[in-house]
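Q: What would this chain look like folded?
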Amino acid sequence: MIVKLGTGGGNLGPDVPYKFGQDVLGELKTADINGDGWLDLMMLDVFYDTINVFLNNGDGTFQYAAKVGLGGTYSGPFTLGDFNHDGKIDLAEIGCDQPQGGFPRGANCTLNIGLGDGTGLHFGKSQSIQLAESSYNLQSADINGDGNLDVVFVRGSVGVILWGRGNGTFSGPTYLKPSTTDPMDAVAVADFNNDGRLDLALLSGDTCSPDPDRGACGQGNVNIVWMYKNNGGTNFTLTTHTQFTAQAGVIVSADINGDLNQDLLHYNQFASGIYPVLGAHGGYEYVLGPGNDTLGTQGTLPGTWISAASFRDMNGDSRADYAVIDWETNQLGIGIQTGGYKNCAPPNSAKLAAKICGTSNGATVTSPLLVKASGNSPAGVNQLQVWIDGKRQYVKWGDQLAKKFTLSAGTHRIAVVANDKYIGHAMAAVTVTAH
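A: My prediction, written as C-alpha cells:
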C-alpha cells in the first residue's frame, strides 16, 4: 500500500509505502472508522475472508490495526456507512466461496451487514442475506430519500436494491431489469436530472464467455449504459440506453465539465490483473450528462490500462479533478480540470464545512437570487441543501450548488447545509434583504 499526501494545488508528496506480507490487496475505502477525526483505511484482502484495517495516527501516517470479516471463504466487494444511525461507521460486505465475488465464473455469495462499535476493529453481524449468484460493485446510498442508507449492486442481468430500515437490517429486493441478457458489470448512483433524487445507471456487457463466438475473456460485447430515473419511493423508469465502448468495465459518476450535471466515466479494470487477467483494455472514456437522465457527447481522456479512478476537487477551484492508476505503466496519473465552469471554491478539506459564495451577510439583493455554495470534508461532501427562512427549498447531490430562488420583499435567512459522505453535517448562513 502506498500513501501520497496532498501538498496543495493538485500536487502530491512522495510515496509512503506500507508493506503487508504477501497478501494481495484489492478494493480500498477511506473513512473515519474510529471517530477520532482522521481518515482511516480499509482494504480488501483478495484471497482471504478479511478486510484489513489501518488506523490513522493523526499525522497522515498509518498503523495496521486489525483484520475484520463477516463471513464467506473470500471477502468480496464492500461498502461503508452508518446503517443504524448511531454515529458509527458500519460495514456491508459480500462474502463468497470464490475470490473477487466469483468473477468471472460464478460463486455462492452472501451479503453480510456488520455494525461497528466505534473502534474500527469490531463489526457485529446484524443480518446475512443469501444472494442468488455472484454479485459485484456494492454501494450504499439513501436512494429512496427516507434518511436510511440503502445498498445497491449488480448480479446476473439485473441491478439489485435492498432498502435500509435504519436499524442495520435491509428489506427488498427491488430489481432493475434492462432488456438484455448480457450481464451487468457495474452501477453508478447519482442525481442525473437534478431533482434531488438519486438515479441509477447500469452498465451491461459480456466481460468473459466460454462461447468462442462472443470473443475471448475481456473482449466482451458492446457495452450499453441503461439510465433509470428515480420516481420517488421504490419506483424507477428506464429513460434511455446508450452504447458505450466495446469493452466491459466500470462506470463512475462525476461532473467533469463544471456544468453541475453528473457525467459518466468508463474504464475497463478487468484487464488490470485485479481480477483474473483477461487480456483486453477499454481505454478511459466519458459521456456527458445534460441533466435530464439521458446521455450526450462521448469522448476520451488520457489513459489506456486504467485499473482505478477517483474524482475530487484537488486544487480548490470547484471543478472535479481525477486520479487514476495505469496498470501497464505502474503509474499514478493526476488530471486537473482546466476547462468547464467554475462555481464556488470550496472550504478547506481538513474539516466538514459549508460555504456560500457571492452573497454576503447583511447584503441587499434582488429577486431572484442566485445562491452559489459548496461543501467539503476529509471524506467528502455528497449532498447540499438550501434552507430559506427555516424551510428546505432545494437538495443537490454533490459538493457544488448553484440555484436561483424567488424572494419576497423583506429580510430572509438563507442557510446551506453540507452533509458528509458518511456522518455529520455543517451549515453556513447569511441574512439578506430583498427588494
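The longest strand covers residues 410-420.
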